[in-house]
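anyone else get weird line breaks when pasting these?? whatever heres mine. first is seq + tokens for prot A
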Amino acid sequence: MTIFNLGSINIDLIYRVSHFPAPGETLTTRDHERMLGGKGANQSIALARAGGDVRHIGATSAEDEWLRAEMRDAGVDIGGVQDSGLATGHAVVSVSDDGENQILLYPGANHDIDLQAAVAQLDTAGEGDWALLQNETNGADEFVAAARARGMKLAYSAAPFDAAITARLLPETDLLVVNEIEAAALSDMLGAPAKEAGIPHLVVTRGGDGADYDGIAGSFHVPAFSVTPVDTTGAGDCFFGYLLAAMAADRPVEQALAEASAAAAIQVTRPGASAAIPDRGEMNEYLAANQ
């Protein structure tokens, strides 16, 4: 099955710090890197490295060809990436010594996607293919309506959490993956635990405490692999991409979650977001050695 991802593409500006600054504090960073990022791009690359067939739909400034080249080199079909007159979206990421991160996000071109052209990318989709989106681009409602009209399934990463968008998309969602903070916000919005929303596949990630699944495959907890994190940036995107790739290939949910957990465990032991995502061979070796 093919996954069509209406997803953000960012330039990640990464700064390593001893601690996160307090209000009014000026802090000298230890290092600086510029990398490809964005939840959408990270998830597309994770899907591709997991062996999935993924077509990315989004936008960047035409001057940032290096971003598209990295996605293409990772195995992502970028035929749906548009040129925008706005600056490419970017994120300012601080990573502390304990591997945690704080992020400031500028949307830029991610909110300038031509929806007519984006929806036209779905003309080659077939029934059973997947549509994927996050809350970092414009056009979610139009994209979902077009996907549903074509008989596609919907995978949704409700981040950054927006109650209004999530409320509209939740009834259409087949697979929802949120972290525990987003799950709490979702439960507040619903006035009931998120697992009672009737979502076919709900996964709540809990970092080093693993993930919880509720849906048509039952209810169970998936423990995380024990690793010492270097950088947790993009770990959730790596997890989501591997999970969706396995589900799109019709592997059992339990196996899909195990693969996603193994890939994320590898990813957090490396610096960066998309650059740290392992390929399927690495994931398989790790999973075999640690089951």
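and prot B, same format (seq, then tokens)
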Amino acid sequence: MARYGFSFFGLGLWLALTPVLPAQFMTELAPRTNQEFDEYQKNAEARMDWQARLSPGPGEVVIAAGDRNSLIEVPGGLIHDWKAATFAPGATVGQALAVLQDYANYKTIYAPEVIDSRALSHDGNRWRLSLRLVKKKVITVTLNSEYEAEYRSLGKGRWAKVSRSVKLTEVSGGKELPAGTGHGFLWRLNSYWLLEPRENGVYLECRSISLSRGIPPVLDFIVRPMVTSVPRESLRTTLNATVSALAKPHGAAPGSGAAQGN
């Protein structure tokens, strides 16, 4: 058992704490923690050059730290910074844009993590969208979220998508909790997509920068694997679901222009 990083003692403590974990794990997002994320986001975006950095093989999702580190501890919270890439054979950039802009069907494309989805507004290459998310890891957390997304042409058939959360609230007992309260699995969530035409397909890269709660020291060895694994797992799931959607018949993104010649 030891070689798997576990023990009967750890298992017993886990089982003892699991029934009380939901109540004990409630917290609030501090203004300073939020500001730390804003500063990290600003610096990360300033360094983005929209160049492909990963080399996935056929059917492979490659995941790496988004910057120098994938986990950054800040006062009261954790910033998670991951990037992942894959290759969708037989697909085009235009078709990939169509999938990413099909917000009404996110609840199908990205199920079971997305259980409801819709576009709230659309102006050219700018969108505002709403997603209801479900995160399951020992306990189940439901989140209502809204994002502002912008699509940018990078030239030569390459496109970028920048999506930033503008609302992320937890749902408990069928009602939204006040903003910045709850279990704190996810306070903020941004994603940065790169779509690049390749021979016989399209290269897809997504970087996810998110903010979660800090971890109480008494629960660190139990809670840290749970909190830190979710962003990486979600990124892999998202890319696999996108490739699966591209394997199905899908029209070009309306008005994207990227469908031409791709």
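btw re prot B: The mean pLDDT is 85. The radius of gyration is 19 Å.
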